[in-house]
Amino acid sequence: MNSNTGYNGRGCPKMIKDASDASACVDTGSNKLDTTDYFSDIPETYQNVDIVEIRFKNTRKGFFRNVNNLKLKKGDIVAVEANPGHDIGIVSLTGVLVMRQLLCNNISPENTEFKKVYRKAKPADIEKWMEAMSLEHSTMIKSRQIAEELKLEMKIGDVEYQGDATKAIFYYIADDRVDFRELIKILADRFKVRIEMKQIGARQEAGRIGGIGSCGRELCCSTWITNFVSVTTNAARFQEVSLNPQKLAGQCGKLKCCLNYELAAYIDAQKDFPDTSIVLETEQGPAYHQKTDVFKRYMWYSMQKDMPSEIACLSVDQVKDIIARNQRGEKVKKLESIENVNIAPILDYQNSADEESLSRFEDNPAAKPKNNKNKNHRKHR
Fold it and tell me: How far apart are CA 258 and CA 213, in angstroms?
């Protein structure tokens, strides 16, 4: 059994044996990409919405239309339309908040043809679902062995069986294009199901697996992030964060998504800051920028460029005044440091072994999967 949140990544704290165990899947507050329903106490007359959100394994969710007007609530196990056959999922959201989720995902309720919710899952449906889930881990291990035997440069990170056990989705990671036609034939012959290969990135894999970040909280990618925005080292530079690869990397091996959270505030606060590459000319010699406290609007300068010493703390206005005087051909006598300021040591990460490179965390556009339906997202029997 894998270590995904809840039973086999479905968000259920225990194994479901029959329909009487459906209550085991009621929201526990720890499901991946969970949504708090703050409209749950509003009477049903105000929640006349026929679209529901259904969650499947890990971070996979979908919106379905309740065509039979079933009385569904959060945690109900339902059979929904799939291609082919049917799938089994757990209701994760109902009511007017579903419309807000559609808006956040840029989905138009009027122009989208939603798949249907067939029924609440019957005991036979749940039994078949449990049999399918029990195959996922062993299927993943065997598929990895087959891919290795075929010498394919790819990693199969997860397998998800459809609720009726007629189809399996293989989630894989690959840096380059992979010709997995032979792999699909072998997998279809070995497991007797319809095969769907779905390429994901390192961040998506971390979201599916889950874990605890260096902050002590669950990973953002497995709790609330649905759209992954590119993160670059410039985000760390704007925030004056030490460029230490070991500190900036998340569990996915990429730059932490949280580097983008406060980036806009830092950029806005630095709009009127002078260029840090400008050297201040004094009668004692040139002064070089060392670090900045963005929100206190302090800038530290030193008389030595590579080895900070005789550090002076100046306000942004002081620095701008000195630059203006230098442009007029004047040199200030010396840098007048602000008094009563705790000058923290200058942090400078040096990688003497030259084993780590910040550029390895940044997304490589050339390695991103192309939207080629014939190659990277193919369905076969």
Answer: 11
Instruction: Let me know whether 26 and 63 are in one domain.
Output: yes
Give 1's pLDDT tier (boundaries 50, 70, 90). Answer: very low
Are both 117 and 141 inside the same structural domain? no
Q: How far apart are CA 165 and CA 52, in angstroms?
A: 23
Structure tokens at 250: 């998340």
246 domain-assigned:
yes
Contacts of 115 (CB under 8 A, 6+ apart): 62, 64, 65, 80, 81, 82
Q: Which of 47, 28, 44 is nearest to 36 (CA)?
A: 28
Q: Is residue 38 part of a domain?
A: yes
Q: Find, among 89, 86, 84, 25, the residue nearest to 60 by Cα.
A: 89
The candidate with the shortest Cα–Cα distance to 92, out of 12, 168, 204, is 12
**Residue 365 forms part of a structural domain:** no
* Per-residue model confidence (pLDDT) at position 50: 87
pLDDT tens digit sequence for 171-213:
999 988 888 899 999 999 999 999 999 999 888 888 888 889 9
Domain extent, residue 244, equals 229-269
